[in-house]
Amino acid sequence: MLLHNYTLRIVLAECNPSSEKVNALVELSEDISEVLPYLNTVLKGFQYSDGEKILTVKRKGHLITFRPRQIAITKLEDEKEAREVMEELKQVVNETYENKDHVKPTYISKPVPRPTDILKLLPGKNCKECGVPTCFAFAFKLTSHELEWKQCPLLLTEEFEASRLKLSELFSEGGD
Ligand code: SF4
């Protein structure tokens, strides 16, 4: 086992203090640097700096940032959910560490899709049903991971199945 213990504290979302969601900052009892490139593979990370040892992944609607001795988790309902998510992450960290001889480490980030490329995959109706004024604004929110492509209801229809598949691939989440 690599990771034994941690201490978790809840913090308000800095970018939106009035949000009902909270974030969690978790201090780790062990340094998990060694396992980060393997977690990058297993969790399909979308940002990884091997020099700084920072890995960001998206998992079950949360943005999760791993550092050597800290994990930050966003968009949580409360402390109970934070503890559940963290227990799962602890398990993933330890299982990945134990299986690392069978996992190919990834030392680079996935290329980040550009808003203009994403825009080509959106329905282009500017109908606002996703909560933002235009498809272009929605594309920006997707690249910054503030929104998810599933929040455009038109993409869930048969007509946009091909776009849906491409977006699903571009924004694949680890562990879902
Ligand atoms: S719901 Fe879909 S089609 Fe409508 S504005 Fe948002 S991204 Fe565009």
Structural notes for this entry:
This protein is an alpha+beta fold and 176 residues long. It has 2 domains: 6-102, TATA-Binding Protein (2-Layer Sandwich); 115-170, Electron transport complex subunit B, putative Fe-S cluster (3-methyladenine DNA Glycosylase II, Chain A, domain 3), CATH 1.10.15.40. Helices cover 29% and strands 20% of the residues. It is built from 5 helices and 6 strands, in the order E-E-H-E-E-E-E-H-H-H-H. It has helices at 36-42, 79-98, 115-119, 135-143, 161-170, and strands at 6-12, 22-28, 47-49, 54-59, 62-67, 70-76. Strands 1-2-6-5-4-3 form a 6-stranded antiparallel β-sheet, with helices on one face. The structure holds iron/sulfur cluster. Iron/sulfur cluster (SF4) binds next to helix 4.
Q: Which features characterize this protein?
A:
176 residues; alpha+beta; TATA-Binding Protein; 3-methyladenine DNA Glycosylase II, Chain A, domain 3; six-stranded antiparallel sheet; 5 helices; 6 strands; 29% helix; 20% strand; globular; binds iron/sulfur cluster
